[in-house]
Amino acid sequence: MTIDYPARRARLAAALAAHEVPALLVTSPVNVRYLTGLVSSNAAVLVRADGSALLATDNRYIDMTRALDVTAVEAPDVTGRLAGPGVGIEAAAMSVAAFRRLNEGLGEGAGLVPLGPVVEELRAVKDEAELELIRTACALTDQAFADVLPLIAPGLTERAVARLLDNRMTELGADKPAFDTIVAAGENGAIPHHAPTDRELRAGDLVTMDFGARYRGYHADMTRTVCLGEPAGWQRDLYDLVRRAQGAGRHALTPGAEAKDVDAAARGLIEAAGHGDHFRHGLGHGVGLEIHEDPFLGPSRTGRLEDRVPITVEPGIYLPERGGVRIEDTLVTREGGPELFTKTTKELLVL
Ligand code: ZN
Ligand code: ZN
User: Fold this and answer.
1) Is 90 exceeded by the pLDDT of residue 224?
2) Computed over its alpha carbons, how large is the radius of gyration of the chain?
3) Domains in the chain, please, with CATH?
4) How much distance in Å is there from the Cα of 223 to the middle of ligand 1?
5) CA of 14 to the centre of ligand 1 (A)
6) How far apart are the first and last CA of the chain?
């Protein structure tokens, strides 16, 4: 499946009228990639309201632009080359220093216009080519977990388990891990974003692993919590509650649903069980060219979900000094019900 970059730029061009700018100077590297296919650390693309575009990059990347379907120019100062009177810029992607410098070059009354997440809003809804890449990233993630699971045993450190997952994902064809892999054993599981340490896994530990593969720029995100040895009653109860909450969140994931209502579907079960204070992060986030992108699911998040939006559902309960459980899948919204991308079982795995 090939990606239709001109169609993406046409969608952006159509969105510019609402912002009353003649063109948008795109400088976010991820957004430049999305609109042109160029992967670089120094490039910008000017997309005009008529749909035409000009890409600028320096001599390290200019040869790569020849294969792209966009006009490109070589310029060491990519934004200086493309900035013009009244042009919109991505406020979140440009430093104040760069903004001032470019405005000085344009003169009085002709300044750049800082805009919000215009391209990010277009990126939230994926085309089928993108969904196929995320599906593959998730399949690599599932496979790496299946391959590493038999190796997980008491005596291994959290860092060793993280390394096994990272190496296996890369061996299977991932670009690299989608983010810093989390492995949290026992009491460390009470910290939602615990960084792996030299703590050894022990019998009786709940072990939470949050990881994912990146494949051709697209991200997967999955969390599973397993138990080393027979779970205690409280561990099984905690797991069952998170699992039910995660299922409720997944079922609420329909085009048209409000972001906060999806969050509430899962959070309500956790609150009703008296663990509201032990679940203090949002329910999920969009995934795509970035690991965390629009839309976000949380109690105060506004907006409605659209069709073809890849998103995570990841409730967790964290008991200070005891441990925690989180279960996370990557799915995509579909009319008629979400498609599950991460397919690893959600039964409590007892190792
Ligand atoms: Zn995750
Ligand atoms: Zn996540």
Assistant:
1) yes
2) 22
3) 5-123 (3.40.350.10), 128-350 (3.90.230.10)
4) 6
5) 34
6) 40
